[in-house]
Each structure stands twice: as C-alpha cells, then as structure tokens.
C-alpha cells in the first residue's frame, strides 16, 4: 500500500517484517491442512466402521482402522509441531514491530516529536525495541521446538524518516488513513467473514443433528414395530450423522469463528469511535504534539490487545514479554 505525500510512503518501511508475515501464513495454512486431514479421516473411519455391508465386515473394519490411525498421525503431527503456538508467536512479533514503526514515524508513544531531544535517540530506541521483540520471538519459537525466521532488513528507509520529519497534519492524516481506517476495514471484513463461517457451521450442525435424530427414531420404530426396512438395519446412519455433526462442531471450535467474530467486531467499533474523536475539533489531537502522541499510544494499545488475544488460541498458554 502506498500513498502520495510529495513522496511515496510504504505501508511500513517497505515490508519490514514481511518475512514474519510469510512464515505466519505458512504455519497457519499447514495447521489448517493437518486439522482438515485428521477430522476427515476420523469421520471416514466412523463411516466405514458402520458400513460393513458395502465391503464386508473384515474389509470395512480394516479401512476404518487405517483411516483412524492415519488421522491420529496427522493429529500428532499438528500437536507435536506446536503449529498454533508457532503461528501466534510469529504473528504477534510481526504486528508488534509494525506497531512500533507506526508510533515512530508519526511521533507517538515513546517517540514524540521534541526539539529538545536528538532524533538519533529515538531511532536508537526503536532499533533497540525491535531487537528485543526479535529476541523474544526467537526464544518463544525455540521453547516450542520450532524454526524462526528473521526479517532481511530491520533498518528504516529514507521514506520512513522523511515521514517523521513532516508536519503534524500530514502525520495525523497518514496515521488516520493508513493505520486506523485500514485496520478498521480489516476488522470489519474479518468479523463478517468469521460470523458467516460460524453461522454456516452452526446451521449444518443443527441440520445434521436433526436429521440424525429423525433417522434414529425411524430405526427404533423399525425394530420395535418390525417394519422390515432393511436399510435401517444394515447401516447405522444415526451414528454416522452424529459423528459428522460433532466433526463439524469440532472444526468450527478449533477455528474459533464465534470468538474471533466478536473480538473483531469489538475492535472495529472501538476504532470508529477513535476516528471520530480524532477529527473532533473540540480536542487538541490535531493541534498539539503531546496530545497526538498520547492518542497514538492509546490506539496502538487497543490494537495490541486485539492481536495479543490470539494467545487464547494456544491451548491456554500465555505469551509473555511482547
């Protein structure tokens, strides 16, 4: 993403931290593939265990055992690699570096614009903090037996330094459009996506459980009333349906569609309120460097609360020091 402001301003230092983003995306995709694989294989195992009439009892049971065993292998691969933990640590490191960059270039938080302080002090402070984040990230990844990656270039480019030297008005507009508005739009889209996924999985879960219950009642009636419906005696559709329903529910819970939808929606509304506060002429955000600096720090803390909440996806393990 770039914006014209007498010069081209990169999204954040021409992709500083992009290697962490790529690594996080890879870990997330790998984790999803493992999850889909073991859920599907366990479901197939349940299916073949109840359909011995298709291939004979011995063959069906053997296939069921093989599917279940392979599913267990995929499950063990996912858990042994600690993919959720690795993804969380990597993503939080990337977002934390990005947050520090925004605070530095617009003069927020620990990097205010002051005539009495040498700019080299703030530049050294930023580099020091980024190095701390990287070292913490490496330590966290090492603790879960993973492999870490490092950004190729952690040095600020001239455009980033030029933005910091620009007027308060330009820095405020840049921050509003390319941090707050962009982040707000991202939260809105992700909230809608997660909510849609949650409703879809919930619908299929209820539909399958309902259908399975009806078939279960039909199976009981077939036996008690001796209706002679061979299909209801040769295959346990009820058990298969229930297994499939709980597989869907389990996959939905693993992806935490409902929780993330709520969290993203909350963050979306908080940023809307903050943008309204920012453009309100009654306050001094747009005219006072000190007030603007505190405002930026507050916004970054709100965003930080959201992305650190990803630690909830790490099997109740907490992330420290970021």
N-to-C CA distance: 26 Å
| Tally of helical runs | 11
Structural class: mainly alpha
SSE ordering: EEHHHHHHHHHHH
How many distinct beta strands?
A: 2
The tally of structural domains comes to 1
Radius of gyration: 26 Å
- State the low-pLDDT regions, or none: 1-12, 315-322
Average predicted local confidence, pLDDT: 79
Shape: elongated
Neighbour order of strands in the largest sheet? 1-2
Helix content: over 70%
Main sheet? 2 strands, antiparallel
Proportion of beta-strand residues: under 5%
Give an overview of the whole structure.
This protein has one domain. It is built from 11 helices and 2 strands. It has helices at residues 18-49, 52-55, 57-80, 83-106, 119-143, 158-164, 168-224, 230-234, 237-255, 257-279, 289-308; strands at 3-4, 8-9. A two-stranded antiparallel ribbon has the order 1-2. Strand 1 (3-4) and strand 2 (8-9) form a beta hairpin. The longest helix has 57 residues, at 168-224. The radius of gyration is 26 Å and the shape is elongated. The chain starts with a strand and ends in a 14-residue tail after the last helix.
Short description:
This protein is an all-alpha fold and 322 residues long. It is built from eleven helices and two strands. Helix 7 runs parallel beside helix 11 (289-308).
């Amino acid at each position: 993403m770039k914006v014209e402001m007498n010069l081209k301003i990169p999204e954040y230092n021409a992709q500083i931290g992009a290697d962490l983003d790529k690594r996080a995306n890879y870990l997330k995709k790998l984790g999803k593939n493992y999850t889909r694989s073991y859920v599907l294989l366990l479901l197939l195992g349940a299916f073949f265990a109840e359909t011995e009439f298709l291939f004979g009892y011995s063959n069906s049971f053997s296939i069921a055992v093989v599917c279940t065993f392979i599913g267990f292998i995929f499950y063990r691969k996912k858990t042994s690699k600690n993919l959720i933990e690795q993804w969380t640590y990597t993503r939080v490191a990337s977002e934390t570096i990005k947050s520090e960059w925004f605070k530095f270039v617009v003069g927020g938080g620990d990097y205010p614009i002051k005539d009495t302080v040498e700019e080299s002090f703030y530049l050294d402070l930023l580099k020091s903090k980024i190095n701390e984040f990287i070292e913490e990230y490496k330590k966290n990844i090492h603790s879960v037996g993973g492999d870490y990656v490092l950004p190729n270039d952690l040095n600020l480019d001239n455009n980033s330094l030029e933005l910091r030297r620009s007027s308060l008005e330009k820095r405020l507009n840049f921050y509003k459009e390319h941090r707050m508005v962009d982040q707000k739009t991202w939260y809105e889209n992700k909230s809608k996506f997660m909510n849609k996924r949650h409703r879809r999985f919930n619908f299929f879960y209820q539909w399958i459980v309902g259908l399975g219950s009806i078939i279960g009642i039909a199976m009981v009636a077939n036996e008690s009333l001796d209706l002679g419906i061979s299909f209801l005696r040769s295959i346990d559709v009820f058990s298969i349906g229930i297994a499939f329903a709980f597989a869907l529910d389990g996959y939905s819970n693993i992806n935490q569609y409902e929780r993330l939808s709520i969290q993203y929606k909350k963050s979306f509304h908080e940023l809307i309120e903050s943008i309204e506060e920012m453009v309100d002429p009654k306050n001094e955000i747009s005219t006072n460097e000190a007030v603007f600096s505190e405002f930026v720090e507050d916004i970054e803390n709100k965003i930080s609360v959201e992305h650190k909440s990803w630690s909830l996806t790490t099997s109740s393990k907490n992330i420290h020091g970021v």
